[in-house]
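Protocol step 4 of 5: obtain the predicted structure for the target chain.
Materials: sequence only (see below). No template structures provided, no constraints applied. The aim of this step is simply to have a reference model before the mutagenesis design in step 5. Sequence pasted as it appears in the construct record:
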Amino acid sequence: MKATFCTRREFCALFLFLNVFVLISVLRHMDILEFQPKFNSTIIMPRVSTHPNEIHSFCTFQPLYPEDALEEYLILDSTAWPETPLLPAPISLQQISDPAHSNFTILPGRKGGEWHVGDQLEVMIQTSDFQGRPKKSGGDFLLASLHNRTLEAGVAGQVVDHLNGSYSAVFSLLWEGDAQVEVTLVHPGEAISVLNRLNREHPDRINFTSLFLSGSLSETTLCNVCLRPTQQPLCNYTDLRTGEPWFCYKPKNLSCDARVNHYMWELKSKVLNANEEKLFQRGVNLKVYIRASGPASVTVLPQKEGQTQVKSSTVTSGPSGYFYQGVWRALGGTTVREFNVSAISQCLKGKAVHMYGDSTIRQWFDFLNAGLKEFDLHSPKSLDNANNILLTYRCHGPPLRIGTVSTGVLRYIANELDGLIGGPDIVVVFGIWAHFGTFPMEIYIRRLQSIRRAVVRLLDRAPGTLIVIRTGNPKDLNLSVSVFNSDWYSLQRDKVLRAMFKGLNVHLIDAWEMTLAHHLPHDLHPRPPIIRNMINHLLSYICPQNGS
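Step 4 output (structure tokens):
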């Protein structure tokens, strides 16, 4: 057979890169427990990677197909956070970003200092430490939004880190009248470094347990995706179809088949030392507003006839929508309409809506459920016989921070999607983000890869199926919440979610921007006015206006 060789430099470079990457991936996983589908009763002994560059010392990862491994690498690279210079121990607050000494400045608008609807407002933010010295490095986590409480208007800003202590926030001006700028320091960069380290060193800082029961014998053991190696063998509950890993320490006197439930036992509170806790002080450096060095608001005039929108070189994408008079207006895609109880029933008539995910999806289920004629208040299923509406909810598979739940109801979203026939009267809604914050990002990426494959299979066999994905959202933070469920963890997973499903025939409900743009306080479970707008957006996808 005649040999073929690279004839173009760029193709040779790409071919070499792919081969080297695959080789590195294979070598990286050679000393990690190899994934082999097993029955749940199989016992495995924990092993620890000895690879010098293995950052997750007691998390086992199954080898990926080369294309999935490359995607994982590229996503991890694209979501990498700017590094913050290490501070000498013990940590001194004097050297980290202080919102009280930092400030933002609204940059001049068009000629004459005017702003019109359709313009972009740019704000420069300068961070300084607790001694008032300007910071010279980036990495702080900032949020920015624009509001008018009287008009119940708001829009999220796009923040750009210039990596030198200064940041830009750019806002699209979308309504006439006043627009108040709000900039919030969520975490200084030094806190981000700690959060990053926690996911490498303490991915097991939430204890999950399972009860094992056989006759009069019962035992409870710890369970997790990542379990620290001991002399105690493990029960391997890796899902046979998706490959999703889950392990429990094997009971001393019972078999792995005797597992009957799953629940979250405790949060390990002592994962930070006293100095590190200084980085997460509410009212000091944790989700604190930054003040303006001058005016904090502008007056927006009507759009000029023939006016072109101002472009900003620092922002690559605009907002997904904005609030006006308390109503969410999506930019691009479907037109969002308001639905009362009667309109909800009419929209869902003859449809089955299957919801999967965490408690933020359960919020949606409960909202819709309240308007339907449910037959069981405690059932994750509602049926409106008069209108032939079926509404179901199922929580996603572990990791799952939840009270006691039978192992029989623990299902992975990918498997549930594979069980659907699909079609034009079938709606699939899912959201999966809040329970993955404490783990290495690889675990989340692989879960989404599994779900995406199932989405593709569903759309291949039933192209008319409507699939809607809920993103994560910012929440109220204190020290404890930050360690286990920081907004930074949610933001990073939000980026991965968007990248993973980009280009597919699915729709996003941007819970992140909707929560950020609203004037109500951030909450893990957003307040009813925000939920109502999310449901209106969902229903507008299900029952779009003609031509939208």
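Step 4 remarks: The chain has twelve helices and 25 strands. The first helix runs from residue 9 to 30.
Proceed to step 5.
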